[in-house]
Amino acid sequence: MKLRRYLGLIVLCVLVCFTAAGAAGGAEVLRMATTTSTDNTGLLDYLAPLLLEQRGIEIQWVSVGTGKALEYGRNGDVDVVLVHDPEAEKKFVDEGSGVNRRQVMFNDFIIAGPASDPAKVKGLSVAEALKKIALSGAPFASRADKSGTHMAELRLWAAAGMPEPDREKWYIQTGQGMLDTLMIAGERKGYVFTDRGTFIKYQDARKDQADLVITVEGDASLKNQYSVMAVNPVKWSSIRYDLALKYIDWLVSPSTQQAIGDFELLGKQLFFPNAGK
């Protein structure tokens, strides 16, 4: 059951209401905050019925940027988080907000842009491509929302020698999720840094209006790792830690890992399971 969070107070109320409804229906309810890519791609909708059938757990989630998802965990608003920013995740654990961090799967980031490739970056390394985009002044759409994708993008800009692209006129700060940011990049005939899974979803949604293509891919720096963590029950007595552990164990189990690997869109695998690797 998907939940959209616009205001923290509203979503917290919704989570409580749905928890009551789920309990009345006989299923135990787990609350999760996760990144937009796991939701936008359809992965969570695909896995939720399996979880309910195999473990008797109804999962309810809010999909936001990783930074916001971890904030919900810090506030005790959810029981578990599934995100993709290793540096932020380690900080979350080190500060005592999260426990039992396990890696689940990965895909990769890409840079997409117009088929005309105005900055001529096709096939270049990430650093070379970003430098050429900056020099050309071609539009570049960024989520600019402290999500895992945004933080990875900023690290790559810094590595390319441009740590503050937000000060440039060509740099479009959308403040939106990945799908919306892709839409804006397409409309502006610009470039965009995105995870491959959401880009495939974007292609699926715009089959007859292919306005963006992959221009940069395959660099080792573009790996996109997803991990799951329980919120620390020592900090929040309301946390369903028992359900969080059951969910984590289920997510990294061989059968669920296989299900993740089997999930496809347009005949393409979106996520690659790697629990325990």
Protein architecture, described:
With 277 residues, this protein is of the alpha/beta class. It folds into 2 domains: 2-107 and 226-273, D-Maltodextrin-Binding Protein, domain 2, CATH 3.40.190; 108-222, 3-Layer(aba) Sandwich (D-Maltodextrin-Binding Protein, domain 2), CATH 3.40.190.10. The chain has 11 helices and 13 strands. Strands 1, 2, 3, 4, 5, 6, 7, 8, 9, 10 and 13 form an 11-stranded mixed beta sheet that branches. Strands 11-12 form a two-stranded antiparallel ribbon. A hairpin with a 2-residue loop joins strand 11 (264-265) and strand 12 (268-269). Helix 8 packs across helix 9.
Q: Measured on Cα atoms, how large is the radius of gyration?
A: 19 Å
> Please, how many helices?
11
Biggest sheet: strands, sense, closure?
Answer: 11 strands, mixed
Kindly report the oligomeric state of this protein: single chain
Which segments are poorly predicted (pLDDT under 50) over 5 or more consecutive residues?
A: 1-24
- Topology, number of strands: 13
Structural class: alpha/beta
Mean pLDDT score = 90
- Overall geometry comes to globular
Terminal residue distance: 30 Å
CATH topology of the largest domain: D-Maltodextrin-Binding Protein, domain 2
* H/E element order: EHEHHEHEHEHEHEHEHEEHHEEE
The share of residues in helices is 40-55%
Strand-residue proportion: 15-25%
CATH class assignment of the largest domain:
Alpha Beta
